Amino acid sequence: xxxxxxxxxxxxxxxxxxxxxxxxxxxxxxxxxxxxxxxxxxxxxxxxxxxxxxxxxxxxxxxxxxxxxxxxxxxxxxxxxxxxxxxxxxxxxxxxxxxxxxxxxxxxxxxxxxxxxxxxxxxxxxxxxxxxxxxxxxxxxxxxxxxxxxxxxxxxxxxxxxxxxxxxxxxxxxxxxxxxxxxxxxxxxxxxxxxxxxxxxxxxxxxxxxxxxxxxxxxxxxxxxxxxxxxxxxxxxxxxxxxxxxxxxxxxxxxxxxxxxxxxxxxxxxxxxxxxxxxx
Length: 280
Description:
Largest sheet: 10 strands, mixed
Shape: globular
Number of domains: 2
CATH topology of the largest domain: Rossmann fold
Low-confidence stretches: 253-260
Mean pLDDT: 87
CATH architecture of the largest domain: 3-Layer(aba) Sandwich
Helix content: 25-40%
Strand content: 15-25%
Number of strands: 12
Structural class: alpha/beta
Order of helices and strands: EHEHEHEHEEHHEHEHEEEHE
Distance between the termini: 20 Å
């Protein structure tokens, strides 16, 4: 089981090179086709509206300006990828906004690589909730890279945040190519000290560990009693285990383009210290 198509989001952020390098390393390791996608920021729906004059000189000038910015980003992408060495590479200029374009194109990839939103960096056309929108809208696994630090690759230790939910189950299944390449997989189950949770069955984590073991994956089950915020506890456990990657479900829904996320997901996306692979 391998990733065959990897899509990476390109923009003008200072950390874009880091996620491109990681996406290139993943693609090289799996022999996958790597696609770098740069959005112009103009929604694709504009081009399909009959009432919109695409020949208007002001619009045409603005469109050409944005397309040139995207071409510059793609040119730099090609230089970074060439330094890593990937056999199959594609540069894709997309006339769309970042969220719409990435959601659409990620549906045709085995893995999408995004960057964590950086409040300290001003990036034209990038919304603060872009990774969440892609997780919730694509139906594919999304690897989110922190805006600080250097992600490790190849992966040595992967942590699975397991709560028995549908989203967590999808994430584990879609992350199998990464889990198979890791040296060790830690299945982490958190229980609130003051609340009984029977979602895991009689022996917490046993069924998931058996499922993964049948895939020849070396598994440790880690149970922790916690107090307070689950997201903060999860990050603390990841640090204790020296995890290179966290696999977890993405929880939430969209309504009128406003995102409502569960507390654990929100905390992880805001304070993540290692890459997080999510699916919804």
